[in-house]
Specification:
- It is a single chain.
- Helices cover 31% and strands 26% of the residues.
- It is of the alpha+beta class.
- The protein starts with a strand and ends in a 6-residue tail after the last strand.
- The protein contains five helices and ten strands.
- Strands 1, 2, 3, 4, 7 and 8 form a six-stranded mixed sheet that branches.
């Protein structure tokens, strides 16, 4: 498959969260997926700055793949003591932040996908601060682009609406509800893409 996700705990008290999607299927996509996470970890330990890390990853993906291969990537660094999440979104589906009060925000700061051009491209870094009980929902386009029997996409608006109805759900239940609703939407069709979901709930400092 071409989806990737990972959580790594660094020695400096941060947890790095990644989700992404590589264009295409097969061995080429699998090799690129398997290389992005370890390269990102090495860069993070050496530089720490997310914009610099994602910029270096862009050059790495461009240099190591053919012209039709590229990747989207969301990378966030959570300070476990303060609840602050710094992030860069390189063309990936915008994750949703479900606040404990039921409001929904989108994490949309970043820039273009990885591996399209070799030169340095501008990436913006975003920041949020988790409150206790807030949940971060990361997903790939296998969720949002799941097709119904009448060729209608599930879409991100449906996903956001579902999250507002899941304000009392824990992380595992949110995953289950999304899978259920996407499967119901796509009933009678073949799954056309990988589906990856990751939900993280902030329970307090180092919780």
């Amino acid at each position: 498959g071409g989806d990737l996700y990972d959580v790594r705990h660094l020695d400096d008290g941060r947890s790095v969260i990644m989700a992404g999607d590589v264009a295409g299927k097969g061995l080429g996509a699998a090799v690129l997926v398997s290389s992005i996470v370890p390269v990102a970890e090495v860069l993070l330990r050496g530089q720490g700055d997310l914009v610099s890390v994602v910029t270096a990853l862009n050059r790495q993906v461009w240099a190591s793949t053919d012209p039709v291969r590229y990747a989207t990537l969301f990378m966030g660094a959570l300070d476990r003591a303060s609840g602050r999440l710094d992030y860069v979104n390189a063309g990936h589906n915008h994750p949703f932040l479900l606040r404990a009060d039921g409001s929904v925000e989108r994490l949309d700061r970043g820039g273009m996908i990885l591996g399209v051009i070799p030169t340095s491209v501008p990436y913006d870094e975003g920041e949020i601060v988790f409150g206790q009980g807030d949940r971060l929902v990361l997903f790939t386009d296998g969720v949002s682009e799941a097709m119904s029997a009448t060729s209608e996409e599930y879409g991100e608006e449906r996903l956001a609406d579902l999250l507002t109805r899941c304000v009392a759900c824990d992380a595992q239940r949110i995953v289950e509800r999304i899978h259920q609703e996407v499967a119901e939407h796509a009933r009678g069709t073949q799954q056309s893409d990988d589906i990856t979901l990751m939900v993280l709930r902030f329970v307090g400092a180092d919780g």
